[in-house]
Design brief:
The protein has two domains: 89 residues, PDZ domain (Pdz3 Domain); 234 residues, Alpha-Beta Complex (2-enoyl-CoA Hydratase, Chain A, domain 1), CATH 3.90.226.10. α9 links the parallel β20 and β21. The longest helix has 26 residues. It is built from nine helices and 21 strands. 25% of the residues lie in helices and 23% in strands. It has a seven-stranded mixed beta sheet, with helices on both faces. Strands 1, 2, 14, 15, 18 and 19 form a six-stranded mixed beta sheet that branches. Strands 4, 5, 6, 7, 8 and 9 form a six-stranded antiparallel beta sheet that branches. The relative contact order is 0.12.
């Protein structure tokens, strides 16, 4: 999830002003602030010395621009897994993606142990059609190892002209051998919202949160209310499984579609005065109070966790499935003129009750495990935010990830079937209070028709 901001830097004074007057012989202790500043300037001088030595003495003439970019990325990747530098091209690509259209393969990826890990393939893209799975490790692209590449460099290698081929070498969990998967690059137009009338239930799936998401959800809800008679309409299923997140404002608008008052999410930075609270707009609720179930799993992260957490805390929905990923941090995109942009983790987000789900995730009230085919067992689970190197810590009770498998055929989808049965069997179930300890999910027993 991301907030777009523009920062104006008026200038920085890097020197010390000279003092006039008589210098006394008595010792004057430097303040902690001035000592810290002195250390900072010393380290910056060290960086300049090293850069100059590389520039003048390295065995081959280095690309100075790449050296600077590598140094910047080194700083950012030492902070947490989600802070990074985007060059001008990567920044343009990110802007296109948040608008809902970009060129490539349709894979959401992160970096883990030097390799590129698939968070989730995006629906109806070359990646999903080729059978790429959440949790797959991409170890080579067109025969070139990804080890040593930054995440942005690897993504750039996977992108290219529409219609051109690319081969990914994939390593799956518990498999010793890699496999080559050949794909053809395409224009990836992301329809982030898909919906379907399942007789008396309105089913909405959000694959990610881009600029079109709220409009898609609103259109789906209006269609359900037109097509399904009110007295027969049992409620909504909001499917956020394997949704990696996206834009913060869209997650807020989607949450507001089901509640019309109260806080949705708050973000808290390093300083207390940086806290921001986002509340529902009165009249924003489009659901007319119909019951609802939210489906989540180990691939549900970031903005999708904001929605699930808000609806859970407001006791507006029954959360069903498996524990979510646990990405509870906010990345701010800071443009850097013509040089690209900085993706910087600037805050943690909290659910309305004050829960930070960083490295913990959202626990469903009703936990349901899917039946995973033998050939995929253990290959489609996620380890969660807590497994990422350098992640922001959140106490001693951090949680690992969970199952992220969704059967391709709805008739085998136990979580979806249970949601339908729950809505049809007890229309008041979505309004019952969440357990006092939301971190202890109940055992699932689908409600029969």
């Amino acid at each position: 999830m991301m907030r777009k901001v523009t920062l104006m830097v008026a200038g920085a004074v890097l020197g010390a002003a000279t003092a006039t007057g008589v210098m006394h012989t008595s010792l004057i202790a430097s303040s902690p602030a001035s000592a810290a500043a002195s250390d900072t300037y010393r380290n910056l001088n060290l960086f300049g010395d090293v850069f100059e030595k590389i520039r003048t003495d390295y065995v081959e003439k280095p690309d100075e621009e790449k050296l600077v970019e590598a140094a910047i990325n080194g700083m950012l990747t030492s902070l947490d897994p989600h802070s990074s530098y985007m060059d001008a091209k990567s920044y343009r690509d990110m802007q296109v993606q948040t608008r809902g259209e970009f060129g490539g393969l349709g894979i959401e990826v992160t970096q883990e142990d030097g390799n590129i890990k698939v968070v989730t393939p995006i629906d109806d893209t070359p990646a999903s059609k080729a059978g790429i799975l959440s949790g797959d490790m991409i170890v080579a692209i067109d025969g070139d190892a990804v080890s040593g590449l930054t995440l942005n460099q690897a993504v750039d290698k996977m992108r290219g002209a529409v219609g051109t081929p690319v081969t990914l070498k994939i390593l799956r969990a518990k498999q010793k051998d890699t496999q080559d998967v050949k794909l053809t690059r395409a224009v990836i137009t992301i329809k982030s919202v898909k919906y379907e009338e399942k007789d008396d239930v309105g089913y909405i799936r959000i694959s990610q949160f881009n600029e079109q998401t709220y409009d898609g959800v609103k259109a789906a809800m209006q269609k359900f209310q037109t097509d399904i008679p009110s007295d027969k309409f049992k409620g909504y299923i909001l499917d956020l499984r394997n949704n990696p997140g996206g834009l913060l404002d869209q997650s807020i608008e989607v949450s507001n579609s089901f509640i019309d008052r109260g806080e949705i999410v708050s973000t808290r930075g390093r300083n207390a005065d940086e806290t921001q609270r986002y509340s529902a707009r009165p009249g924003g609720d489009l659901s007319h109070g119909k019951p609802m179930v939210v489906l989540i799993n180990g691939g549900s992260a970031s903005a999708s966790e904001i929605v699930a957490g808000a609806l859970q805390d407001h006791k507006r929905a029954t959360i069903m499935g498996t524990r979510s990923f646990g990405k509870g941090s906010v990345q701010t995109i800071i443009p850097l003129g013509q040089s690209g942009a900085l993706r910087l983790t600037t805050a943690r987000y909290y659910t309305p009750s004050g829960r930070s789900i960083q490295a913990k995730g959202i626990e469903p009230e009703v936990q349901i495990l899917e039946d995973v085919p033998d050939e995929l067992k253990g290959k489609d689970d996620t380890k969660g935010e807590a497994s990422l190197k350098g992640h922001l810590k959140n106490g001693d009770d951090e949680k690992q990830g969970s199952q992220a498998y969704v059967p391709p055929d709805a008739k085998n989808d136990k979580q979806l079937i249970a949601a339908l049965n729950l809505l049809r069997g007890n229309t008041k179930a979505s309004n019952t209070p969440a357990p006092a300890d939301a971190q202890k999910p109940a055992t699932a027993t689908p409600v029969p028709n």
